[in-house]
Design a protein that fits this description.
This protein is mostly helical. The chain has a domain of 107 residues. The protein has eleven helices and no strands. Helix 2 runs antiparallel to helix 11 and helix 3 runs parallel beside helix 10. The chain is elongated and about 60 Å long.
């Protein structure tokens, strides 16, 4: 990444700083944001495949069939089916396996809301094989909601780019979300590709650059 030598070299030429700063800062920030995507993939894949497998094994394969076909099933499933069908051919038929493949992250997060958790007889929590005893359903649900909201902002380009020292609160937020993601992945028994210390090191380079530039009137 940047490193002390490169920073010294850049600050030696103040007239060129703003152009170089904005170009390289954007690269650093986008690189940092990209670190989330492998973790989000690991979390979503492990969550949906794990919940699906546990429910089919312990509650029977008909459990998902009932949710898909019963008119009195929970609105959550009806809404997900509608979203899937709207982007498929008119003769498309949803099966439990296709629900798992085509559904978004959100529906699996909602397996930890009180309503769906009760409907699935508390089985979803079993997907977290490394869960500490003191951590309960509500704790997982809060973390998953936080991750889901951040994921949606990031994927749909609604999470603002960090451009100045005034945006440092967003940098703090990325570190907090990354820590939550690592925690959830650890509880799922999965392995991340990048540690929190490595992420904080990259975030620290951005923080150092922003604080340095804020004192030299570059932006």
């Amino acid at each position: 990444m940047w490193g002390t030598v490169k920073l010294r070299k850049i600050f030696k030429y103040p007239k060129r700083l703003k152009k170089i700063f904005m170009k390289d800062l954007r690269y650093l920030v986008l690189t940092l944001y990209s670190r989330f995507f492998p973790l989000l993939y690991i979390l979503e894949n492990a969550l949906k495949t794990g919940i699906f497998s546990i429910i089919e094994k312990e509650l029977g394969k008909e459990w998902f069939l009932v949710q898909l076909n019963d008119n009195s099933s929970d609105p959550l499933f009806k809404a997900e089916i509608t979203q899937i069908i709207n982007r498929k051919p008119s003769n498309y038929v949803i099966t439990p396996e296709l629900l798992k493949e085509e559904s978004g992250f959100g529906i699996w997060v909602e397996f930890f809301n009180p309503r769906i958790y009760k409907l699935s007889k508390g089985r979803p929590i079993k997907v977290f094989t490394g869960l500490p005893r003191e951590v309960k359903r509500v704790d997982i649900y809060k973390r998953l909601i936080t991750v889901k909201e951040f994921r949606n902002q990031l994927v749909h380009s609604r999470f603002p780019l960090i451009k100045s020292a005034g945006d440092l609160i967003r940098l703090d937020e990325t570190e907090e979300i990354y820590a939550i993601l690592l925690q959830l992945i650890h509880w799922l028994g999965e392995s991340p590709l990048m540690t929190l210390d490595q992420f904080k090191q990259e975030a620290g380079e951005i923080r150092m650059l922003l604080l340095k530039t804020s004192t030299t009137n570059i932006i």
